[in-house]
Amino acid sequence: MERRILVIDDNAVTAKLTEASLRREGHVVIIVNCGAAARKVLARETVDLILMDIQLRDATGIALIKQIRSRPQTSNVPVLVLTAETSLSIANSTRDSGANGYLVKPCPLAALIKRVEELLFDAA
Fold this sequence. Notes:
- By secondary structure, the chain is an alpha/beta fold.
- It has one domain (4-123): Rossmann fold, CATH 3.40.50.
- The protein has helices spanning 12-24, 35-44, 61-70, 88-97, 109-123, and strands at residues 4-8, 28-32, 49-52, 79-83, 101-104.
- It has a 5-stranded parallel beta sheet, sandwiched between helices.
- It is globular and about 30 Å long.
């Protein structure tokens, strides 16, 4: 089934690789590179999953996750964090802010796809 996935990542290479992998699985992918663009997309479109970096040039991922969770339209959308941050405190902060999962870059594409599919299945 075709699902809409919002990818929020300011690293263009990572975003394009992620997009290609998700499209091969049959998903529609929307890519933005900052928190402001993500908020605009989420204000006008419905997505089935948000895949995001935690370090964005204009916002912290933690703050953005909290904003996503505070909006009725997005409060139940699964959020998967994909980041180079390996700190246990960052992982805990993402979970506490409402993220549904946390993967560390570089992440094998098979593991990323598996986790995305699990979250989409759980949300259905």
